[in-house]
Amino acid sequence: MPVNRTAKKDEMAPKSMKSKKNLKIKTSSMLSNSISARWKILLYLISAWVVVVAGLLAVPNYNILLQPGNLFTRNEIPQLPTSNLFTHLPSAWLIWAGFLAMIVIWRFVPDVKEDGRDISPQVSRFFFWAFMIVGAYLRLENPRWPVGNFWDDHYYVISDIRNIIDFHMNYILFPFGWREPFYPYFSALIWLLIPQLTGSVVVLVSSTVIDMTAVWLFYLIGKELGGRRMGLVLMGLGAICKTMIMMTRFVYGTDTCVLGGALAILFFLRVLKKPDILHFVEWGLALGFGGYTYVPFRPWMPVMLGMVWLWVLSDRKERRFNGARFFMGPVLLIVWALVFLYKNSLLPNQNFFQFFVHPIVLDSLFLAVIWGYVQSFFNERKKGFTKLFGWATGAILTGILMAPLLLQPNYSAHVSDISIFSPKFTAPGEGWNKLWENIVFTYGLFFGQVNHVSRLPAIGDSLYEFLVPVCGLLGLSYFIAKPRWIPAYMVVLFLISLVPGVLSNGPHSFRYASCDLPLLLIGAWGISRLWLFVHQVTANRFAHIFFVIFLLSGWAWELGQNHKLLWEWLHQQADTSLIWNQTEQELPNHRVYLVEHGDPVFYTPGQNILTDGEEVYRMDDQNAIDLKPGDAQKDLSIMVYGGDVDNQKKIEKEFPNIQWNKKRIILQGDGPNDIPFLWYAEVPFDQIPEKNEGLFFVQRVSPWTWLRRCYGHYGLGRGLILYEDRVTRWNDHLPPPDKIDSGHSMRVSGDWNVKIAGDYLLKMTTANTTWVFVDGKKIINVPPDNTVKVSSQKISLTPGIHHVELVTTFNWERQVPKLVVIPPDSTVETPFDDYAAINSETADVNSLSKAK
User: Fold this and answer.
1) How buried is residue 728: exposed, middle or buried, by Cβ count under 10 Å (0-12/13-18/19+)?
2) Which long-range contacts (CB under 8 A, 24 or more apart) does 496-501 make?
3) Which of 62, 426, 816, 836 sits at 20 to 30 Å (Cα–Cα) from 758?
4) Among 133-142, 150-159, 262-271, 713-722, which is the least confidently predicted range?
């Protein structure tokens, strides 16, 4: 029978359409079920995270964040409050349960490209600058407020900076702790660019620039890993990171290793993305720069070299070796490891490894490496350089940059002298016990409470703020659920960053500075991946906005908490900051005197830095107050160490009606029987006698006298005033020998009444480091090279009053260097102070006051 194809087609058409319709329904149903399943996974994941958050809020150091007021007024762990929901929750159980649940749930989250569904450049730019402004403000707020010292004097490092500028003491390792050079030289550059700043502000500005540069690099690192979204998350965490801000405020240069680590990780990631010679060179330079930052960066170098070497060998094409590649690859890595262990005193004295670090053996290995590198260069330059050659280029470049440091005889002193295995601190056989104690202490310092810290944070607070473990556990659970080698590498870097602390006899906070970036990066990775998962679950714009508001709310809460904790810590006053705070309250209406006390020390050399540019004096056996006509008649403010009874009685004998006030530092009790740290009293000006006897007396002097001030070992003519008087001739009645001792300096200033217009030649012959200024302009500069020089300068002056200032240090002669002048109407050299005195005797005092 003939087949009616048209009819059959018509008959089949509805079945086909029905099939398509069923397929569409089935697909829609599956998609709906998939979306519904993803919503469930997201809700489960967030619920598990909330459980972790609840557990962390039950931990005492985070629970106290929920309490109002300042809980850190004493140098002890605050009592745990019992007035909130989280206090009695089982913290450990909740944290572990939530963490393990997150690991399981993350495994059901579909994989996606980390930088998918990224933020727009416009939005990213807005938040970038918002985070930069917030971060800079937190670090620079009230910049003159100091941090109290508890161990060694951290402000002493500013003397190194001044020595670079004033005396050209250009060290590679600075003797005070054999510290790395980047921070002092960078701070000196800032001071040269902004000379009007005082020392304490200069180091805060340089520390802030370093820290905010690191925060900017955080953005670039995050962008390399997960696009602009991860970059902003990492940057936001870094901008408000309490640990980074506190280390910046401490102005010790410890934050430099965060900058070094950020540069090393950034260029490491760029090498992975494009492993050409240029990127390997950049990576080598970054790694070498890190060696000049701060000692906790040191363990990163061999680990980074080794990890990149392993990554190179993961490429099968790179695993072919001839003699040249063998020396350029494995032997170079072994040489680096040996040098690192040897120069950081990590090799036992009696060990077969000592054979390999013998100069002859090491030199032979170096020559073999160079031979292999040169041979590989000629073998590969035509075909294109391999990854192994690029790695060797970076490693050799790092070694070249590090050579000036490694060749310093004291390079290992900072490590070996404070090691837990050093016989100076640890009995034989006790090193491993000390290591375990340090590990337990470090965990408590990071995320709990410990009974003692070195300077930061406040006792009872944890080193890392609440957001760090909250975000870090989210990121770590993701890494475990979906293991990849780069996240694992970040965890390894964190563990390696613990080494400088746990291997030291005093595992204080600064030795863990390199932990900041790996910890924050792990947390940022977790937040960014959760944010990306929200995009995978829904395309609803309002849901995305709600999630962003949720993240920003948590960030803003932490910002407020960190700001509060920072200033509670800053107000925990120790000796240096307490004295500074009291002098600031007394100035400028009082003439402030500090009474020196030997043991225990009342004030440290840091007081030189904090009083820089202010009229704060050291009290002497006799204290003349020379006043010109019109000078302010200020009351006295005298500050004495709490236990210095002898000097208190001496002052009371001079001023029987004196009333003492007391202040204590954070380390002291405030009971009725506790001796305070500071006694201070005010003496009205009208009680100061006008006769040349007694402890204090006033002398009326001519307006044409020269003001002489003596200073100690802090730069040239800076810091606490050790002695002051007024004289007609610069070397009349020189100050006591201890005031003009070697290394001390003097500032002489006054007004010169110029009678004749014209060119004046000023000339000086001395080896003392000396500056001479006329009307604020430096005209003579005798450099600090300890050789006698004749320095001269011709200046053109108009009739009238000109301000002259001479600053000198007593490194050659113990007097003010002789300055001579040849006036325009003469060819005779006349001592400048003689010439100025002759011209000033007939000067009109009224014209002087008008000129001023």
Assistant:
1) middle
2) 496/299, 496/300, 496/303, 497/296, 497/299, 497/300, 498/439, 498/442, 499/299, 500/295, 500/296, 500/298, 500/299, 501/296, 501/438, 501/442
3) 816
4) 150-159
Query: How many whole angstroms separate alpha carbon 244 and alpha carbon 514?
Result: 10
Write b or e for each residue in 270-290: b if 16 or more Cβ atoms lie within 10 A of its Cβ, otherwise e: bbeeebeeebbbbbbbbbbbb
Residue-wise DSSP of 14-65: HHHHHHHHHHHHHHHHHHHHHHHHHHHHHHHHHHHHHHHHHHHHTSHHHHGG
Q: What is the pLDDT of residues 137-164, one digit of tens each?
A: 999 999 999 987 655 667 778 889 999 9
Please tell me whether the peptide bond between 600 and the residue prior to it is cis, using omega within 30 degrees of 0.
Answer: yes
Quick: pLDDT tens for 547-582: 999 999 999 999 999 999 999 999 888 888 899 999
Q: How many residues does the chain have?
A: 852
d(CA 143, CA 203): 10
Contact 333, 325 (CB under 8 A): no
Q: Which two tokens stand for residue 706?
A: 């020269």
Q: DSSP letter string over 548-592? A: HHHHHHHHHHHHHHHHHHHHHHHTS--HHHHHHHHHHHHTTTEEE
Closest CA to 342 of 291, 392, 271, 416: 416
Q: What pLDDT was estimated at residue 601?
A: 82
Cis preceding linkage at 409, omega within 30: no
Per the listing, tokens 């971060």 go with 135
CA dist., res. 385 & res. 375, Å (int): 12
* pLDDT given for residue 416 in this prediction: 74
CA distance 851 to 306: 69
Question: Phi, psi (5° rounding) for residue 314?
Answer: -70, -20
Straight-line distance from the first to the last Cα atom of the chain, in angstroms, rounded to the nearest whole number: 127
Three-state SS string over 157-185 comes to HHHHHHHHHHHCCCCCCECCCCECCHHHH
What span, in angstroms and rounded, lies between the C-alpha atoms of 565 and 563?
6
305 within 8 A of 395, measured Cβ to Cβ = yes
At how many degrees (to 10) do helices 157-167 and 182-193 cross?
Answer: 60
Residues 754, 802: contact at Cβ < 8 Å?
A: yes
Q: Higher model confidence: residue 495 or residue 849?
A: 495
Residue-by-residue DSSP string for 225-261: HHHHHHHHHHHHHHHT-HHHHHHHHHTSSTTHHHHHH
Q: Are 581 and 570 within 8 A, CB to CB?
A: no
Written as one string, the DSSP assignment of 255-302 is THHHHHHHHHHHHHHHHHH--SHHHHHHHHHHHHHHTTT-GGGTTHHH
Helices (H) and strands (E) in the chain, counts: 27, 17
> What is the signed CA dihedral for 714, 718, 722, 728, rounded to 10 degrees?
140
Mean pLDDT to the nearest integer, 93-98: 97
Structural tokens at position 824: 């325009």
In angstroms, the Cα distances linking 26 to 16, 438, 537, 654 are: 15, 61, 20, 101
Alpha-carbon gap, residue 770 to 804, rounded angstroms: 13
The helix/strand/coil state of 507 is: coil
Determine contact, residues 745/809, Cβ cutoff 8 Å.
Answer: yes
